[in-house]
TrEMBL record:
Transmembrane segments: none annotated. InterPro entries: AB_hydrolase_1, AB_hydrolase_fold, Plant_Biomass_Hydrol_Est. This is AB hydrolase-1 domain-containing protein. The keyword Metal-binding does not apply. Keywords: Signal. Coiled coil: none annotated. Residues 7-162 form the AB hydrolase-1 domain. Gene3D superfamilies: alpha/beta hydrolase.
């Protein structure tokens, strides 16, 4: 979630949305990430919340580059669903728990910020010793309620003004 990587991602998104032959709906762009990518979702969403209809974070411990208080203030209009397993040996669920507590203290309810915390999650198929880390296998299982939730999401935020990342004010 380095700032220059986020810039490139947002530029790529603009390019894809501008390609009329793709027929993409810019009001339905959803951020999804697992593990370190999940932490990146927190940062990207906080950087440009109006660009996305919703976000799903799987085993992401919270924003790495964005101060938590800024993420809390910037994500008010973006529905998020966070998944983590208690038995995750790679990313401690306690870190996600702390982030969720801070969001709840700031008034985020279960509609704005859903948190599915399982006692036991599966290991990644290619790393069976990393117990509990592949919560995305549960989140995106064939009959998971996340699918209907995602299909119901549409962007409703006002365009972003500016955001602070690592102390620098940037235009989104």
């Amino acid at each position: 979630s380095e700032p220059y990587v986020i810039d490139r991602l947002l530029s790529l998104l603009d390019e894809l949305l501008g390609m009329s032959q793709l027929r993409l709906d810019g009001a339905r762009v959803i951020l999804v990430g697992g593990s370190m990518g999940g932490s990146g979702v927190w940062d990207i969403a906080a950087r440009a919340p109006s660009r996305f209809a919703a976000a799903v974070v799987c085993a992401g411990e919270g924003p790495k580059r964005t101060p938590l208080r800024l993420a809390i203030s910037r994500l008010r209009s973006m529905p998020m669903w966070v998944f983590h397993a208690q038995n995750d040996v790679q990313s401690p669920v306690a870190l996600t728990d702390k982030v969720i507590v801070r969001f709840r203290e700031a008034g985020y309810d279960n509609e704005t910020l859903r948190y599915t915390r399982l006692i036991e999650g599966p290991p990644p198929r290619v790393y069976p010793h990393v117990k509990g880390h592949a919560i995305w296998l549960v989140a995106f299982a064939e009959r998971s309620p996340v699918w209907s939730w995602l299909l119901a999401q549409r962007s409703r935020a006002e365009p972003d003004a500016t955001a602070a990342v690592d102390g620098a004010v940037i235009a989104a």
